Structures are given as C-alpha cells and as structure tokens.
C-alpha cells in the first residue's frame, strides 16, 4: 500500500481522483459490498460524456462547453455541483451526502455508509445514462460535424455489415 500510494503521488494523469483517493486509499481498497459501476467510474475519473473530456481527450467535440447549461466547461465536477439540469437529482444526493460535493468529500461519505454509496451510484447511473443518450442523438444528427460522427471501428463495421 505504501508503494502504491507513493506511485500515485507522482502520476501525471488522473490527479483529481488520485488526490481524492490517496488519503483514504487503504479504506478504499478494503471496502466490501461496494462495487464500482461503469458510470460511477466515469464521474469519479471525469472520463465520459463531458464536454471537457470529449473535446480535450477524445477529440470528439469542438468545444468543452456544456450542452445543457452553456457553461464554458462541462466536466464531471461541473455536472456534480453546478449544472442546473441535474438540480433535482443533486438535491437528493446532497440530502444523503451533505452539501460538499467535492470529490474528496464524496469519496469519504461513500466509504462511510452504504446509503451514501448507493446515492452516488444512483446519481451517476441516472445522469450518465441521460448524457450518453443525448450524445448519441447529437452523433446521429444529419447536420453533425465530422468530428462528432460516430467512430467506425472494426467491431462497428462488422456489426453494420451484418445488418445489411
């Protein structure tokens, strides 16, 4: 654990999540009956249908802007704390976790009890599934810029060939 903690301290990527996990790393690794879901992981890491990720990393969006509220940067943290589209869901989340939605506070609360873990998973599943559905609609739009179009990997080409 000590070596892993030291390795995480010097990683150039994922600094947001590693900074939040390092103080509670042993508790995180020893958690029981608290699985990571795909969408929870997207929110914790910021790798998902967020304008910031889609523009800077995946290069699938022309800007980092939030499609829901027009904020300059659509990130996991902006989705958690600010975007008005998720206000009702956020109220439910903060009623369980408390008002501080910083990543370190969220992780500490999630490790504290099952109710907090389940509330965060529920928030992430609902928000990310809706963001993914919205992204698919934008990808399939007839006037979509080429950067936004759905990638044609080998598996997708094979799938489309079978449909014909």
Automatic annotation (TrEMBL):
**Protein origin, superkingdom:** Eukaryota
Q: What is this protein called?
A: Reverse transcriptase
Task: Tell me the organism.
Answer: Euphydryas editha (Edith's checkerspot)
């Amino acid at each position: 654990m000590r070596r892993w903690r030291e390795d995480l301290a010097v990683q150039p990527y994922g600094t947001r999540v590693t900074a939040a996990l390092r103080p509670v790393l042993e508790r995180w690794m020893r958690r029981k009956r608290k699985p990571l879901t795909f969408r929870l992981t997207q929110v914790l890491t910021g790798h998902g249908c967020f304008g910031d990720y889609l523009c800077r990393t995946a290069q699938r969006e022309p800007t980092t802007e939030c499609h829901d509220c027009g904020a300059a940067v659509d990130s996991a943290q902006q989705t958690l704390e600010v975007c008005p589209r998720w206000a009702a869901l956020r109220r439910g989340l903060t009623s369980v976790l408390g008002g501080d939605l910083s990543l370190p506070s969220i992780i500490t609360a999630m490790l504290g009890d099952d109710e907090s873990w389940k509330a965060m998973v529920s928030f992430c599943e609902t928000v990310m599934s809706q963001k993914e559905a919205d992204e698919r609609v934008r990808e399939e739009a007839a006037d979509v810029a080429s950067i936004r179009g759905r990638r044609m990997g080998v598996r997708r080409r094979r799938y489309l060939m079978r449909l014909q």
